[in-house]
Amino acid sequence: MSEAYSPIPELNLLKEFENRLGPIYYSDGFELREYNADSGLDTWSDHPDFLTRFIPFAQANGSGSDYALWRCDDRRDLATLPIVMIGDEGALYVIARNLPELFQLLAIDSEPFSDMGFHTPDSAEEHSPGHHEYLTWLHQTFGLEPPEDVEALWAERKELDDRFRTWASQFVDLGDY
Asked: How many Å apart are CA 114 and CA 91, to the nearest integer?
């Protein structure tokens, strides 16, 4: 039996980093959780066509929101699947087009909010204790940096979020998010 965290090499690398870093945050509110464990999606809908399309893998904030991969199709490279925010206050939307993009958003070191905005810390004192180590890991492992233009990322993922909302609305009421 494999001891890997998941079948996704990119997530396994993040898990190894998280394990080396120890019990400190490297991005505000984010923490890997048991791969494909219950994330409360059944409170949204118990329809199998809805539930089987998500793979939960991380806590998004300290109040109960999670991240999950959205199986929008049958591609084999799971790291290229969109990432959905399963909000504790009723939000359900695509937050990143793929894992590398989520990793970049984590480099902002800010919890995502239901309005899909991020607060960028003003100073180094406001960053999570492991933030600098995460930035180093992100660059060394994937050659990625924090996004220069978060608004451009939101615009780029909008079409995918619209597609997600159309699909999900067959099963749940998405409200105004």
From this structure: 6
Question: What share of residues in the chain are helix, strand, coil (percent, to 5)?
Answer: 35, 10, 50
The least confident of 17-26, 30-39, 57-66, 110-119 is 110-119
Mark residue 130 as left, alpha or beta (left: phi above 0; alpha: psi -120 to 50; beta: remaining): alpha
Name the pTM for this structure: 0.89
With 0-12 CB in 10 A as exposed, 13-18 as middle and 19+ as buried, what is 39?
A: buried
CA distance 85 to 83: 7
The pLDDT of residue 144: 97
Spatial separation of the C-alpha atoms in residues 119 and 113, rounded to whole Å:
9
Q: Write down the pLDDT at residue 176.
A: 63
Give the DSSP H or E segment for 154: helix 150-168
Beta strands 54-59 and 92-96 are unpaired
pLDDT of residue 168: 95
- Ranges of each domain in the chain: 9-168
Determine the pLDDT at residue 167: 97
Within 10 Å of residue 113's Cβ, how many Cβ atoms?
Answer: 15
